[in-house]
Amino acid sequence: MIKIKHTNKVVLAYSGGLDTSAIIPWIKENYSLEVIAFVADVGQSKNDLDGISEKAIQSGASDCYIVDLKKDFVYDYIFPVLSTGALYEGNYLLGTAMARPIIAKEQIKLAHQTNSIAVCHGATGKGNDQVRFEMAYAALDPNLKVLSPWRKWKLSSREELIDYLKSKNISTTATKEKIYSRDENIWHISTEGGVLENTWNEPDNNCWVWTTDPMMAPDKAEYITIEFDKGYPITINNNSLNLVDCLIYLNKIGSKHGIGRIDIVENRLIGIKSRGCYETPGGTILVTAMRALEQLILDRDSFQWRQKLGLKMATVVYDGLWFSPIRKSIQNAAHVFFNMLSGKIVLKLYKGNIIVIKKYSQQSLYSEEFATFGKDTVYDQHDAQGFIKLFSLSSKIRAMKNKK
Fold first, then answer.
1. pLDDT band at residue 3 under the 50/70/90 scheme
2. Residues tagged active-site
3. Is 18 annotated as a binding residue?
4. What pTM did the predictor assign?
5. Superfamily for domain range 184-360
6. Which of 80, 200, 202, 213 lies most in the core, judged by the most C-beta atoms within 10 Å?
């Protein structure tokens, strides 16, 4: 028996999946704690939530709380990150990383409400999520005890977890043949493990959940117009939508056309490389449209600085530093540029591709009058001669010195 002082209650971040289903009986066996299951509804599929309370109770939880966090997740986590242009290692749209802080925050809140002495997560000792959860716990309430079963128990694989659940007569949808680890929310779905552990294996059909195979997507392209006001999408094809409904709609249309699939090997914070298939159809559409607006509106120095902010923000969020001054600082700095993004973008969706075909903004710095290859009356091309002389002066002096 593993001893813990003041035996009482623990709040478990519960998904109903393989790991957290095994954690409930394991905690009761080893700590004699009353387990309260906490389910964060961040937009995962309805199938994942149907019957989840009953499943938690059947697994041994004393109670199960389901909290709808979709609106807060979209408004207070997704769009603040989106506003910075953050992309981890140039590809990953941070779907899992953004969800962990809001889950941890609500988990801590429930722990306070239920007078629990501990919180628990189901992240493995190899991954990033253990850091993200526990960084949030430390920032929000360092006095709560933290349980991380994957770092304690003798179960060493997901296959052993399946056998453990069978011995406890607890049902699970995971099988030894389809043993993928998945994370789903309103922004994305990720798939890891299984055939993906060998980087020479092509992802099979079971690796993709939301999106249509681009080869099987409609043969006819579809056009959509997104209007932005101060960074936020306000209409799609002239229909007004709130941010949650906007994302749901873009996920649906993007999935139909095979948009937003990536198969990447990423550098985890702890030093291990991992491979995952990520599907972010609506997010990929939004990012593409916003970058098109930036091309019109931001001057070169502003664009380059926004890129640096996005690069740093991606690392900060990926590493679990959400509740830190650096995240707030980056977000505030990027909001200056985000607030400038007003206009309309027309996109063409076709077999996994997003093509920007039209862009307009009243804040656009693009001037056809100046950029034209035809005759104009606003730009004197002779002016470039003096500019080039000054701009190249240091190169000229260096060449002269070298020649001597």
1. low
2. 19, 100, 129, 181
3. yes
4. 0.93
5. Argininosuccinate synthetase, chain A, domain 2 (3.90.1260.10)
6. 80
